[in-house]
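Known limitations

Structure tokens in this collection are predictions and should be treated as such. Users comparing against experimental data should check residue numbering before alignment. To illustrate the layout, the record for C-type cytochrome is reproduced below. The input appears on top and the generated tokens appear beneath it.
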Amino acid sequence: MHRGKGMKFVGDSRVPANRKPNIPKDYSEYPGKTEAFWPNFLLKEWMVGAVFLVGFLCLTIAHPSPLERIADPTDTGYIPMPDWYFLFLYEMLKYSYASGPYNLIGLVIPGIAFVGLLLAPFIDRGPERRPLKRPLATGFMLLAVSAVFYLTWEAAAHHDWKKAAEQGAIRPQVTIDKNSDGYKIFSKQTCITCHGDNLQGGAVAPALTNVPFNAAKIEDIAQHGYQKMPPNQFKGSKADLKKLADFIAGLKSNK
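Generated tokens:
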């Protein structure tokens, strides 16, 4: 309508004349279909989150994180193992299509999958909520969950947990006198290539500190072998062998 000289007043029916308080709508006519976000739905979300949080805290108390020895860059036989939630990626990188020259693919594909999961609410904005009526989203989700479970199982089933525990075990500190005659004899033998310059052991040989053998048994092992160790590894006189055996038998921790 027109009033005055060229002045116009426009009315908008979307703006209510009487403001009402912010009260949730009454959904009693639609039982089981929907509910108010605050406080009904949000309270349920908090309750479920609290249950998972308490369960996770109980799990960390019952099974604390395992500690291993200090990283040793000279120990090339150590096999690192990621945490359980990265085991599927660890296993996938073992396959030829995701390792070597295709290592980039093995890292990019999981990244695309996680980004797609984050963007799913913005990409798939259809009104349907039933899984059967959303075949693409349901299919990709089932494929991803199956792949994660399968790869995690494969990584855990084929890992040598006993050997990994021995490699990562915290060993008591032992003082090694590298100026002693026993160490000089040890460094001249082939023993040092397998047991390490600090007698810490490696991928194929155990540590020579805190061994549960006396000097006589160590002499016998050097001559006749033990388990995977072949015989006749020591090359030298009996006097040098005795000095070496006494040196190794004396490498005990102070605890």
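For this record: The chain has a mean pLDDT of 79. The chain has nine helices and two strands. Please report discrepancies through the issue tracker.
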